[in-house]
Design goal:
mainly alpha, 2 domains, 3 helices, transport, cell membrane, transmembrane helix, Sec-independent protein translocase protein TatA, protein transmembrane transporter activity
Length: 95
Amino acid sequence: MILQVTFLFISGGEIAFILFIAIMVFGADKLPEIARGLGQGMRTLKDATNDIKHEISKTAEKNGIDTSITKDVKKELDKVKDDLEEFTGSIKRKF
């Protein structure tokens, strides 16, 4: 049995095909500009999301809502995430 590492359930061949089509449609000279624009858009979205989270937390604390529950849940999720990364790391090293 051969296991392949996939990104969003897309194999390497499919990613290469998508890149080939993108080069054919946009041209090699436009791809860096498009990637830069996508990166800036994603950064803007991340900043907006962080601002919204900050405002919600600030408003909750201002109104006396206990936010320690969310911190506990976040700690547990981070712990599970670390355990999962440790587990998948050992699997990746074996193959």
